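User: My advisor, Dr. K., asked me to get a structural model of this assembly before our group meeting. I'm new to this, so sorry if the format is off. These are the inputs:
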Amino acid sequence: MWEYTDLVKEHFLNPRNVGEVENASGTGDVGSLACGDALKLTIKVDENGVITDAKFKTFGCASAIASSSALTEMVKGMTLDEAAKITNEDIADFLGGLPKEKMHCSVMGREALEAAIADYRGMALPMAEGEIVCECFGVTDLEIIRAINESNLRSVEEITNFTKAGGGCGKCEDRLREILQQTVSGSKLEWIKPMEKPKRMTTLQKIKKIEEVLEREIRPGLRKDGGDIELLDVDGDFVSVSLRGACKSCSKSQTTIKEYVEKKLRELVLDTLIVEEN
Amino acid sequence: MDLHHDAVIYMDNNATTRIAPEVLEAMMPYLADYYGNPSSMHTFGGQVGQALAKARRQVASLLGADPEEITFTSCGTESDSTAILSALQTYPEKRHVVTTRVEHPAIKNLCENLDRLTGHKHRVTRLKVAADGTLDLNEYAEALTEDTAIVSVMWANNETGVIFPIERMARMARERGILFHTDAVQAVGKVPINLKELDIDFLSLSGHKLHAPKGVGVLYVRRGTMFVPFLTGGHQEKGRRGGTENVASIVALGRACDLAAEKMEDENTRVKALRDKLEEGLLAAVPKSMLNGHKTDRLPNTSNISFEFVEGEAILLHMNRYNICASSGSACTSGSLEPSHVLRAMGVPFTAAHGSIRFSLSTYNTEAEVDFVLEKMPGIIESLRQMSPFWKGN
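Assistant: The format is fine. Below is the predicted structure of the whole assembly, which you can bring to the meeting.
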């Protein structure tokens, strides 16, 4: 069970401003069903640029709902310029704090607010102009850099906690580490370079590395014989692959998997990997 | 910290169960007065040894086993690890293990770490499940090879309650000279088990799923099966498991096994009827809800239902408001935003997997409780859906 503050529980059980503002001046739509959380924020802005009304619809856990509710309470009565300055930390603080694994819920709130303001102003989302780093959750480098700076993030895990980047397939982990290094060194903090080859790898790191080795070391050989190989899944040490083309009907396919593919992957990625054909 | 238990509607019995009052009564003297060590020479300790022997007979009787085939452990996880690692050590030349994609983490994570634990390379085949959570016996037959040291398949799945055809699967392994282990933690007390008539070599069970306390388990080892202990130490449990016996909990488990035999009929009639009423009521009252797992090949107490377009943690916390206890397959935590590996293996779509709730009943549930849950759940789901940007009405 999560240790939620009383304020989080209160906003979750009695959420304020649920629904959609009629004839909204701006709408912010972030997240998706597959991601496990999503937020649609609608705001009404008067002629003086003051937010007179804000409503939300949220799919997600208790802290996602509480963050959305808090956000709508915070922005009502603010000018757009004031609202634009709200950070995810402000939302979390309003609720008396969030568990660190749930910080991305507050980030979702801030993103929805930015999207709604940009929509009202007829502008493109500044953060959306960055380069997409995490494809699973559509997180850009600008969003990541901002989270690193605003929340003093110092590890890839923290970046995932705050932005969700890297929390899906994990292919972007190396890029996240790079961004973290650049951003942190830019802010004059000491940065210790991570070890070249980690002894333990996350599944996400494994997938990336395995794909790399397949592409560089294994596919060229198989393609010469009219075959190919596809990576289906990585679960713990189990690597599930499928042989394609000429390899599929080859009587030596089991030998190819065990003697060639598994051997290479154990040598170059992790010596505990077990390759299975599906 | 405030603890509360009043008026809790407990429908999370696949997570753990309440200690039966009869069981608590049976174990109390061994916490209070009879604290002797069963290995001691004096009568004060020796009489405790007799209590252990009785508990062993009680467990054996529920399983249709001989008392000498029963070894007490600390939990289901220890029993599972002991069985698998024993098999791999007694057949060191065999390097293949067959299991499923929906095992409990006790087996799943063990199988992922076999190489590290044994110092040898192993190949693990993890059988797929169909959309209703059932296994394909043809795939199973093909997976069994001369190199296979052991098969480990759970008797019933903890998340969906789906029951696997363990009798047939054990026979198929035996015919090929392969050891067979089953994690029967969820099945014991709900499914009749007679090990004398089955080809099972190892079976794990856990006390706290059976109205005994946490911290006690059993490993059944068929007579004549080669065995290497997991915990070496003293000569307790005939040298099969070192460590001074958890006497009170073992006595409790013995009593719980007697009770389980008495209540098995109730589990499969009254409790099943309550489960069915709850399930049918929810599926009828809540649009866009669906059952996860096979409708009939299933434990009588378990119902795993997905409510589309809402998220599991939010549902559970609303239920918590009414003191209704259940579980969810959803895991809304960054880093693992993916729902349970069981639902994922069954191919349950994301729209539904995030909103899955597992109800698991016991003999202590009443019809009034089911009615209360049926009264509250539709409103909880409806209020969350009203809040969900994906909900477009019925």
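One thing worth pointing out at the meeting: The two ends of chain A are 37 Å apart (CA to CA).

User: Perfect, thanks a lot.
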